[in-house]
Amino acid sequence: MKEIERLKIALMNDPGAESTSKRFGVLIPIIETPQGLSILFEVRARDLRRQPGEICFPGGSTMESEPATMAAVREASEELLIAPSSIEVLDELDVVNVYSGGTLQPVVGLLKDYDCSFSSDEVAEIFTVPLAFFLETQPERYDIAMRSVPVEGFPYDRIEGGKAYAWDSSYRYIYFYQYDGRNIWGLTAGIINDFIEKLKRGGYPY
Predict the structure, then answer these.
(1) Is there a cis peptide before residue 205, judged by omega within 30 degrees of 0?
(2) Is 142 left (phi over 0), alpha (psi -120 to 50) or beta?
(3) Regions in the chain scoring below 50 on pLDDT
(4) Residue 160 covered by a domain
(5) CATH code for the domain of 70
(6) For residues 175 and 140, what is the distance between their CA atoms, to the nearest angstrom?
(7) DSSP character for 81?
(8) 43 and which of 61, 124, 135, 164 could share a cystine (Cβ 3.0–4.6 Å)?
(9) Average confidence score pLDDT of the chain
(10) pTM assigned to the model
(11) Domain span at residue 45?
(12) 77 CB burial (10 A radius; 0-12, 13-18, 19+)
C-alpha cells in the first residue's frame, strides 16, 4: 500500500479527539406578565466567588456527557426552584465562544406557573424586563482590544524580533442595556442582542 493511501485511511478512520473544552448552557427565561412577554434576569448572590452582584441568566456548566440544553434547564430549575417540566424549551440560539474558554449554548425557554421563587444560595434577586423594551432599544456597543501577552518562560529567543515581536491585536464588542436603573452588559447583553436579532429576522412581532 502506498504511503499516501495509508495517510488517507488514517484520516478517514480517525473518530476525532474528545473535546476537553468546557461547555455551558444558559436559559433565557420568558414569562408572561401584565406588561406582555418579559425576560427574567437574576442578580447573582453577592457572596459568590465569581461575578458577585452581576446580572445574568440562570445556567452553568454541563455534567459528563450532558447536552448543553439539558444543563441550561437543570441549572435554571435549581436556581429558580422550579421543576424542569415547568420549562418549555422554545429554541436554541447559536453557540457562543466564551472568552475565558469553552462554548456556551443559549436556550430560550418559557416558564410556566412561575411564582418568583429562587435559591438565595446563588441568587440575590430576580427582575423582569418587557420583551418590547429590547425590541425597541438598540444596545450601546463598545470595542475592547485583545492583546497577546506571553507568560513567563516564553521562548522569545526562538522567534524573529524576540521580545520586540509585533503581536497582532484583535477586538470584540461589549454590549450594554440600561433599564430602570439596571445595567445589563457583557455576555448577557450579547446573548439578548443575538436573541432579539433572531426574532426580528423571523418577522416578530407580526
Answers:
(1) yes
(2) beta
(3) none
(4) no
(5) 3.90.79.10
(6) 6
(7) T
(8) 124
(9) 92
(10) 0.85
(11) 21-145+167-202
(12) middle
